[in-house]
Specification:
Layout lengths: L1 E9 L8 E4 L8 E8 L2 E2 L2 E12 L5 E18 L5 E8 L6 H22 L3 H9 L3 H6 L9 H8 L4 H53 L4 H14 L3 H17 L6 H13 L12 H11 L4 H19 L17 E6 L6 H12 L3 E5 L7 H4 L12 H9 L5 E5 L12 H8 L8 E2 L6 E2 L5 E6 L7 H5 L2 E4 L5 H19 L7 E3 L1 H11 L6 H19 L7 E3 L1 H8 L8 H4 L5 E8 L2 E13 L4 E4 L4 H16 L14 E6 L13 H13 L7 E3 L2 E2 L5 E2 L4 H10 L4 E5 L11 H6 L1 E5 L2 H8 L12
Parallel strand pairs: 1-3, 8-13, 8-14, 9-10, 10-13, 15-16, 19-20, 21-24, 24-25
Antiparallel strand pairs: 1-7, 2-6, 3-4, 3-5, 5-6, 6-7, 11-12, 17-18, 18-20, 22-23
């Protein structure tokens, strides 16, 4: 350790090899430590400097010339008799590592700095100075000479005592400088190029104007073209007045004006809207039903609604009754607003095109999933550069008529942020009393959307804002039964996949029994999307075997062919296995993908008096579990449970699968049944599924999604389903074949649930007697 005088440098950093002149009294010191300081805070490392010259300045001040030697790590500090600050210094001259460790870093550092010097157009002497440096440490210190390096970066570079680490840091700083300089250069070149292009365009336009004047031509041809388009567009009076006003502006300002192109774009959009064009509807309910039946199996609700719409339109037209824009769902006007809500793969999107074909209208699909900008619906105001109309105007232009079928796909996935709420903009679009005067921000004229047939699709209704949902006529798609899926596979999916895989009808066949096996053992969905994928896999495997001449057509797809193509069975009817022990009950739930079966497991353990709930349960479901335990505990005598069974015992309720969040009150009776089964030792019947909310008094309250839950129970092989008494009317929506296969038990109390769900009490044996 060396004792040296500390010389603070305010916001200045001196590196080894640098020479500085300071106005400071160092007396007879031969060496000092130069330490950077900022706001009374010293750096951890300074530069040991040698005094090379002293001078007396006018006025009595003294100046010294100092040359940096190497780095020094600051240790303990003290003051000398003259009151000057001195420190213990661990001198650290650079220990250059073997060239193999720094060769690549040095090469890259020199290359980066060379490129920086070229961008800055620096004198060649700087390059020569850089090339003359051989030591890696001194090379890294040259980074401190860069004018763009901040004081903090210089201090950090000084504190890098290890040469390799210092060189890496210096290279990082120089790369940042190079990137910044390259961006600046690119911006400067773009600006210069743009200015030159504008000058060139202006010059060429002036030449073009002069040539036109010499030839006796002007902009009249362009103005006449727009005037002809406006005349032929059949615009309403207010819209035509706006178009002619903009045309007069274009005529007076000429082509040379910068605003002329914006006006031309506006007129192009205004004349592209099919103001007076409408498709001639085919008001034939019977034909519409035939078209819909040919394209889709099932979906009776939406088919009935389309037929009703056509019937009303036909009667009003035949009897000369004018359209009423205020009628709900547009039943009396030219348009309608339907919202199809259901799980994925149930045909919501594809039915829109079938509706358009049945009505003899044009079809346009607008995907709203992920849309977060209100301007996507209403358009941008013309004051913005690159402004465009909203999607509705573009949809009308693409359709070429004012009465198309517009499918608003995934309306439940519309978002909102600082750019506005698209769902709020849709309020006017989907309101029959307002959409006859919809105003797009870009066109800024009234647009009549009352004749448009809107069909919105969504997976769940919960994420659709209430005011928007209130304007929609909701038709729910609850999924397909096994027979319906079989019919869809036979009539639609199998022929489509067969054609896509290059096979003819006489080359491959499949029976209904095998189709049902694929549906029940390889898919578990409300729709048919996964089913189509599985059928495609089977046909691809078959096509491969035929193409490679492993088999000769015709090929019949058997169970063995299915197992070979799709592998082992993916879904099992596991209710019997899961409920074989007391404490497990089968519940029914509704998810975004349709109905589903879930198992509620309950167990108990000695110690404590807690209720543990697992399986990512929401607050409502946790409350249902507490209510269920309180009911079972308070009715222990009625249920034949020893009250001592609750003493000093904790209960654990788990709802697989643990990775899937769950919530809602409909699992209340299932949890109560699982707890009662556990405490009575009576297993739950494996054929029974249940759904319903439970109260502390044991009342069973109604729940939603009965149809979807019934379909899930049927797919899972359950034969008895317990539902709340107040849901009895919902059984009318359940398909007839499901009602025939399942016995539904409407109940009012939890006692009825337990009587139906639990296995009978075992009869006393002779030995027990």
């Amino acid at each position: 350790m060396t004792d040296l005088l500390l010389v603070p440098l305010e916001d200045t950093v001196v590196f080894p090899g640098m020479t500085v002149t300071l106005t400071v009294d160092v007396a007879d010191e031969e060496r000092v430590l130069l330490v950077p300081r900022h706001e009374q805070e010293y750096a951890k490392v300074g530069t040991v400097a040698e005094v090379t010259d002293r001078a007396q300045l006018p006025g009595g001040a003294r100046a010294v010339a100092l040359t940096g030697l190497h780095r020094g790590i600051i240790g303990a500090a003290h003051t000398d008799p003259l009151g000057r600050l001195r420190v213990e210094v661990e001198e650290r001259p650079d220990e250059n590592p073997p060239p193999v460790q720094t060769r690549e870093l040095e090469r890259e550092y020199r290359a980066v700095v060379e490129e920086i010097l070229e961008l800055r157009e620096v004198d060649d002497r700087v390059r020569q100075f850089l090339r003359a440096i051989k030591d890696a440490g001194a090379l890294a210190d040259t980074c401190a000479y860069a004018p763009d390096i901040t004081f903090e970066q210089r201090v950090e570079l000084l504190e890098k005592v290890d040469v390799v680490e210092r060189l890496r840091y210096a290279l990082e700083l120089q790369r940042e400088r190079l990137a910044e300089l390259q961006v600046r250069r690119r911006i400067r070149e773009d600006v210069e190029s743009g200015a030159q292009r504008q000058q060139r365009e202006w010059f060429l336009r002036r030449q073009l104007e002069s040539i036109r004047k010499e030839l006796g031509e002007d902009d009249a041809s362009l103005i006449d073209e727009y005037r002809r388009k406006i005349e032929e567009a059949g615009m309403p009076e207010a819209v035509r007045a706006q178009a002619e006003r903009e045309l007069r502006r274009l005529e007076t300002m000429g082509e040379a004006s910068g605003e002329a192109s914006m006006i031309r774009t506006y007129l192009d959009w205004l004349t592209s809207v099919p103001w007076s064009t409408r498709s001639e509807e085919k008001l034939d309910p019977q034909h519409a039903r035939e078209v819909l039946d040919a394209d889709h199996a099932g979906l009776e609700d939406v088919k009935d609604r389309i037929v009703e719409y056509l019937a009303v339109r036909k009667l009003r037209q035949e009897r000369g009754i004018p359209n009423d824009r205020r009628s709900a769902g547009g039943a009396g006007g030219g348009g309608a607003i339907l919202t199809l809500i259901g799980p994925p793969g149930t045909g919501k999107t594809s039915i829109g095109e079938s509706v358009a074909r049945a009505l003899n209208r044009e079809f346009v699909r607008m995907s709203l999933g992920g849309v977060r900008d209100e301007a996507e619906i209403r358009g941008h105001r013309r004051t913005y550069i690159g402004a465009l109309p909203g999607r509705l105007v573009r949809a009308l232009r693409d359709a070429g008529t004012m009465n198309p079928v517009i499918l608003l796909d995934e309306v439940d996935k519309v978002g909102a942020d600082w750019r506005g709420d698209p769902a709020a903009a849709l309020l006017e679009v989907l309101d029959p009393a307002q959409n006859h005067s919809f105003r797009d921000h870009y066109l800024d004229v009234e647009l009549d959307l009352s004749e448009v047939f809107f069909i919105a699709t969504a997976n769940v209704a919960d994420t659709i804002p209430g005011p928007l949902l209130d304007r929609m006529e909701v038709i729910r798609f609850d999924g397909y039964t096994l027979d319906e899926k079989t019919a869809i596979a036979r009539g639609f999916l199998w022929p489509r996949q067969r054609e896509r895989n290059g096979l003819r009808e006489d080359e491959v066949s499949i029976s209904d029994d095998v189709l049902k096996l694929v549906i029940s053992e390889y898919t578990r969905e409300a729709g048919v999307r996964q089913l189509e994928r599985e059928l495609g896999t089977i046909l691809r495997k078959t096509a491969t075997r035929i193409a490679s001449e492993a088999v000769r057509p015709p090929v019949e797809v058997t169970v063995d062919v299915v197992r070979d193509a799709l592998g082992r069975q993916k879904f099992f009817q596991e209710a019997a296995e899961r409920t074989a022990v007391p404490g497990v009950a089968t519940g029914l739930a509704v998810t975004g993908a349709g109905g589903d079966v879930l198992f509620v497991e309950a167990t108990s353990m000695d110690g404590g008096n807690d209720l543990v709930l697992t399986g990512q349960l929401g607050d409502v479901m946790k409350e249902s579990a507490r209510i269920a335990l309180s009911y079972v505990r308070s009715h222990a005598d009625d249920l034949g449970i020893d009250p001592a069974a609750f003493n000093d015992r904790s209960f654990h309720v788990h709802v697989p699968a643990g990775a899937i969040p769950k919530d809602g009150p409909s699992a209340g009776i299932t949890i109560a049944t699982a707890l009662a089964s556990l405490l009575t030792g009576r297993p739950v019947k494996h054929t029974v599924g249940m759904t319903g909310e439970v109260t502390l008094q044991g009342r069973v309250l109604p729940v939603g999604g009965v149809k979807q839950k019934a379909l899930a129970a049927h797919a899972a092989g359950l034969t008895d389903v317990i539902i709340p008494e107040r849901n009895r009317a919902d059984l009318d929506d359940v398909p007839e074949d499901v009602r025939e296969a399942i016995r539904f038990h409407p109940v009012m109390t939890l006692g009825e649930v337990l009587e139906l769900a639990l296995e009978p009490k075992p009869k006393p044996t002779l030995q027990a007697l």
